[in-house]
Amino acid sequence: MNTVSSVRLNIISAIYGNLPKEVNITKIEFEGPEIAVYVRNPSVLADKGEIVKKIAKDIKKRIVIKADEKARKDKKETEEIIRNLVPKEAEIVNIKFDDELGEVLIKAKKPGLVIGKGGTLQNKIFYETYWRPVIVREPPIKSRTIDSILTHIYNETEYHAKILKVFGERIHRELLFKDRYVRITALGGFYEVGRSAVLVETPESKILLDVGLNPSVTGGEKFYPRIDIDQVRLEDIDAVVVTHAHLDHCGMVPLLFKYGYNGPVYTTAPTRDIMALMQLDALDVAEKEGRPTPYTAKEVRKELLHTITLDYEEVTDIAPDVKLTFYNAGHIIGSAMAHLHIGEGTHNIVYTGDFKYAKTKLLDKANDEFLRVDTMIMETTYGAQEQEGREEAEEKLINIINGTLNRGGRVLIPVLAVGRGQEIMLVLNEAMKNKKIPEVPIYVTGLVDEITAIHNAYPEMLSREVREAILYKDENPFTSEFFHRIEGFREDIAQGEPSIILATSGMLNGGPAVEFFKTMAPDSKNSIIFVSYQAEGTLGRKVRDGVKEIQIIDRDGRVENIRIEMEVNHVEGFSGHSDRRQLLYYLRNLSAKPRNLVLNHGEPNAIESFRRQVEREKEKLGLRGTKIYTPQILDSLRLV
Amino acid sequence: MNTVSSVRLNIISAIYGNLPKEVNITKIEFEGPEIAVYVRNPSVLADKGEIVKKIAKDIKKRIVIKADEKARKDKKETEEIIRNLVPKEAEIVNIKFDDELGEVLIKAKKPGLVIGKGGTLQNKIFYETYWRPVIVREPPIKSRTIDSILTHIYNETEYHAKILKVFGERIHRELLFKDRYVRITALGGFYEVGRSAVLVETPESKILLDVGLNPSVTGGEKFYPRIDIDQVRLEDIDAVVVTHAHLDHCGMVPLLFKYGYNGPVYTTAPTRDIMALMQLDALDVAEKEGRPTPYTAKEVRKELLHTITLDYEEVTDIAPDVKLTFYNAGHIIGSAMAHLHIGEGTHNIVYTGDFKYAKTKLLDKANDEFLRVDTMIMETTYGAQEQEGREEAEEKLINIINGTLNRGGRVLIPVLAVGRGQEIMLVLNEAMKNKKIPEVPIYVTGLVDEITAIHNAYPEMLSREVREAILYKDENPFTSEFFHRIEGFREDIAQGEPSIILATSGMLNGGPAVEFFKTMAPDSKNSIIFVSYQAEGTLGRKVRDGVKEIQIIDRDGRVENIRIEMEVNHVEGFSGHSDRRQLLYYLRNLSAKPRNLVLNHGEPNAIESFRRQVEREKEKLGLRGTKIYTPQILDSLRLV
């Protein structure tokens, strides 16, 4: 027998006490952070939406009214009603039912038309069928990832509903301790870039912010964040929060499930999709190279069933004393800053994750408005470095491309599948459209393609210009005629006519980019252009740093000597990270100034140099009272 | 079945391989940090002691040869042999047997005569009886504490032997982790004085350095160090190390046993005895005042059976990757600095505990020679303050006493039962002997008396002068005719003829000192002289700070208003703590300079002020490369 805690009792009383009796509540379920009220007569509430809103506001919880199973219309009938109500132009491609949660998934090419103005049509669907509509966009470029994720979740509705209830009961458990403290512990990504992970600890709860891998190694102890210490007991972790889909921030989340973690993962919808894709791809690559993998696809599938997606600026209870709110971080699609509100205002932490404090073609700039920040954990990747401005960077890129094409060479741009790839596509598309570079084929290979499809599923998360081009102008830059999608490596292209090749991975530590590099490097007509950060220890870093010859062990174990004759360039202005100036602007412009500023996600010289800079400019930045911390891995800081 | 680990296998092989076969080894036991080799024919080794020493040196372990049970002589016969071998002047008072460990306890007034020159007689006793002699001093003032501790341990030989084996197996377990880290976590006594506790953590082991209580409160969360956090799991703690017997360093050790700790406590012999006495006394006082106690006498008794006493400068394995060595700290009798040697030289920590870097009448000054120190955790109680010099302090004390006695007043000196009490006794005894103060009665009350008896049991731990006076000159200053021992409070003395009263507790937070103070305070002829540190929140602190009226709630719950008319003085030069200058000298004179200096055990202004001072004088102190840390409670620092 479950005992109902008084926290939950209070919520239940508020709902019973304030809903009209005639709705006939049949059960109240704590489904993750949401409170689902199942009723026999939802129609009673059809024009009384404000009652539910008021209760939600009073008890500061997310309440969803659902119809009792017995009240819901037959599925076939429901499908007919939906198809009749929704205009043809919405182009519904799929309808699926979740019996457990009483939801109907409607996938459409124009989801806005299913939602209706201000949600009116969505509402109508509910009151005419008693199924709660969940509306999803079918992107113009088909995404296999999203399809298989949704199929997986809708195949496991029973497990999914059950686990949500487990989360819900845990989130709404009783507060046990009178005493208050808040500690953070550096588990990875401090004084280094890679394997990001932070433990946030209160007497009541424990939360992991990111659980990444170290991209500069493929195994050994430095591959993992320090989730092995006793302080991190997986059964005590209340929530894992993932700020974006790069593997250095999410690559070890499935490992938690392998070792028995059974709790939720909070992230945005695009991060969920891309994260799963990146994890599965990493498994593929490791398998092909005969390396052991820290987890298998089974754990990725479990992770997906345990993931709860949140929108930006949606306040969510994730533990009895912690509320999480995501804000746009401008780094890649779906990237988020995590704001943790602890206790009744005991402490507010902002963990920036990776962020860009400047507008890019792809994304809006990172959020700088918070009601309260006591401690800010801030990335410092480029804390020691100023990048070119955007326009300068574009000009430089265009010049290098023109120079190379003019001498009959080919341009290799290694790109991170996520973010930089799409940004460079937008830049190249515009430049070619405006005749700033000659019209040669732009080959896109590796994961970039599938990731681009996912971008198209979430246009509302992209910059205004791109969003509008996709949604209203039917001028989708990602489907432009200049782009040619290819599979993996193609020798004919590497040695063929002048062209531009966008290939993953961005640090030359895997993917078709490595094959292209090996073939193209000895030809001095060619160019390679790095457009993203190159971590210590990666092949990309060595090449960028000017090494003239490189030994590569191929898949058969043979050592190849590669002479690098091609032109090597890097254009940093496209970075998804803020440079030193942008980091400083960010601190200056923050609406609320932190008492503690914790610098992470930077190599030692970046962190030290940025720390000194901030110390010097404290007054100017409005940080007079702020303490600056630069913890090492396994340092813990008590914040309260 | 126990499996024998390869660590233990290697030790066993080395012993079997190097001892002559004829000794006939019957078993090898891991008895705590010692390896006991039980043999049928010990006589084979009678003149081959160097073989055993060589093995011990080779495998870096403490080896003890014991006789197999069957080989040992009958107890009655053994007792006779001992009494015949030992000269009468040794004055044996007691002989007890431990069948489990094959030891015979010989208590004598002159233990040196039982040991014999270079241990020859002790050795002879073993080879003639096949019982290992353990020799203990019967002090000239009888100590009930020591008697009852030894009786307790010798009543529980079976449990004691069993638990030592449990410790032994745990200490000599396999190393499991390739990876190395060392972290310390501040659990109490950081940015404050009281509830000292530090957690030292490696992947292999966890050690608690001190587990004290906060003397300025009697309950509530600030009473305890933060041993309640998840990081401190009692079943994972390998060892508790107690640096000295003041309750702010050891007052919560029994609580660990209450909550399931089952491991060893390492400390010096006088610390063990005084610690138990102080803990039991605190229980008594709480009971009389009707306060709940965090533990009971049962846990103190368990603690005693789990305590392993070490001499200064004796290197001891306390965990598979940690060796502990104690050094004289000069603070009170038995007080130690704890040196932890971690891994094969991975890291060396010195935790100073409370220390005095100056010679006192009672003790030698703290040790400043270490082979290696990477991290020093140093107390900073007087980091912001310079005390009078010793001679100045004595003069001041004598002047105040003379002034008071001359005007017909009485002098109250609240003393910590341990340390300051004995030091002041030595000063007063000398001054009176030399006629610097008139011959009035010196009343000694409270715990001081019993503690003084314990001092007499361990003269080897006192300063050279006192040691020699006790051992060779029969001029024991503690038994001087000037001292009058009384029980508790005596109104006739408080209001009687001019006299000097030494009474516990030193901070007026309990003990007969409070009663004397209440009676003596309103008379302006009287004086009170504080000679030790007064913690924030104690009555002593308020009085020292010059409050003119005080409300005291007596044992019946009545509020009494006490007007303070007496002369209030404090003489800090007797402190058992180093003052700012001594702390700086200590750093300058250290034979090995730490890379990390962690300041603790000080109020915030003491720590901050001392930190700045050290920063300023880094060059001069030879600490150019040293990083200074001032952690807060619940901060963790990674050292390696």
Automatic annotation (TrEMBL), chains A, B:
<keyword id="KW-0540">Nuclease</keyword>
<feature type="binding site">
    <location>
        <position position="354"/>
    </location>
    <ligand>
        <name>Zn(2+) 1</name>
    </ligand>
</feature>
<dbReference type="InterPro" id="IPR022712">
    <property type="entry name" value="Beta_Casp"/>
</dbReference>
<feature type="domain" description="Metallo-beta-lactamase">
    <location>
        <begin position="194"/>
        <end position="409"/>
    </location>
</feature>
<keyword id="KW-0479">Metal-binding</keyword>
<feature type="binding site">
    <location>
        <position position="244"/>
    </location>
    <ligand>
        <name>Zn(2+) 1</name>
    </ligand>
</feature>
<feature type="binding site">
    <location>
        <position position="354"/>
    </location>
    <ligand>
        <name>Zn(2+) 2</name>
    </ligand>
</feature>
<keyword id="KW-0804">Transcription</keyword>
<dbReference type="InterPro" id="IPR019975">
    <property type="entry name" value="aCPSF1"/>
</dbReference>
<dbReference type="GO" id="GO:0006353">
    <property type="term" value="P:DNA-templated transcription termination"/>
</dbReference>
<feature type="region of interest" description="Metallo-beta-lactamase N-terminus">
    <location>
        <begin position="181"/>
        <end position="385"/>
    </location>
</feature>
<dbReference type="GO" id="GO:0004521">
    <property type="term" value="F:RNA endonuclease activity"/>
</dbReference>
<keyword id="KW-0378">Hydrolase</keyword>
<feature type="binding site">
    <location>
        <position position="601"/>
    </location>
    <ligand>
        <name>Zn(2+) 2</name>
    </ligand>
</feature>
<comment type="similarity">
    <text>Belongs to the metallo-beta-lactamase superfamily. RNA-metabolizing metallo-beta-lactamase-like family. FttA subfamily.</text>
</comment>
<dbReference type="Pfam" id="PF10996">
    <property type="entry name" value="Beta-Casp"/>
</dbReference>
<comment type="function">
    <text>Terminates transcription on the whole genome. Termination is linked to FttA-mediated RNA cleavage and does not require NTP hydrolysis. Cleaves endonucleolytically at the RNA exit channel of RNA polymerase (RNAP); the 5'-3' exonuclease activity of this protein degrades the nascent RNA released from RNAP.</text>
</comment>
<dbReference type="GO" id="GO:0008270">
    <property type="term" value="F:zinc ion binding"/>
</dbReference>
<dbReference type="Pfam" id="PF16661">
    <property type="entry name" value="Lactamase_B_6"/>
</dbReference>
<comment type="subunit">
    <text>Homodimer. Interacts with RNA polymerase (RNAP), interacts with the Spt4-Spt5 complex.</text>
</comment>
<feature type="binding site">
    <location>
        <position position="249"/>
    </location>
    <ligand>
        <name>Zn(2+) 2</name>
    </ligand>
</feature>
<feature type="region of interest" description="KHb">
    <location>
        <begin position="73"/>
        <end position="140"/>
    </location>
</feature>
<dbReference type="InterPro" id="IPR036866">
    <property type="entry name" value="RibonucZ/Hydroxyglut_hydro"/>
</dbReference>
<dbReference type="GO" id="GO:0004532">
    <property type="term" value="F:RNA exonuclease activity"/>
</dbReference>
<dbReference type="GO" id="GO:0003723">
    <property type="term" value="F:RNA binding"/>
</dbReference>
<dbReference type="InterPro" id="IPR015946">
    <property type="entry name" value="KH_dom-like_a/b"/>
</dbReference>
<keyword id="KW-0238">DNA-binding</keyword>
<feature type="binding site">
    <location>
        <position position="246"/>
    </location>
    <ligand>
        <name>Zn(2+) 1</name>
    </ligand>
</feature>
<feature type="binding site">
    <location>
        <position position="331"/>
    </location>
    <ligand>
        <name>Zn(2+) 1</name>
    </ligand>
</feature>
<dbReference type="InterPro" id="IPR001279">
    <property type="entry name" value="Metallo-B-lactamas"/>
</dbReference>
<dbReference type="Pfam" id="PF07521">
    <property type="entry name" value="RMMBL"/>
</dbReference>
<feature type="domain" description="Beta-Casp">
    <location>
        <begin position="421"/>
        <end position="543"/>
    </location>
</feature>
<keyword id="KW-0862">Zinc</keyword>
<keyword id="KW-0694">RNA-binding</keyword>
<dbReference type="Pfam" id="PF17214">
    <property type="entry name" value="KH_TffA"/>
</dbReference>
<protein>
    <recommendedName>
        <fullName>Transcription termination factor FttA</fullName>
        <ecNumber>3.1.-.-</ecNumber>
    </recommendedName>
</protein>
<dbReference type="InterPro" id="IPR011108">
    <property type="entry name" value="RMMBL"/>
</dbReference>
<keyword id="KW-0255">Endonuclease</keyword>
<feature type="region of interest" description="KHa">
    <location>
        <begin position="5"/>
        <end position="72"/>
    </location>
</feature>
<keyword id="KW-0269">Exonuclease</keyword>
<feature type="binding site">
    <location>
        <position position="248"/>
    </location>
    <ligand>
        <name>Zn(2+) 2</name>
    </ligand>
</feature>
<dbReference type="GO" id="GO:0003677">
    <property type="term" value="F:DNA binding"/>
</dbReference>
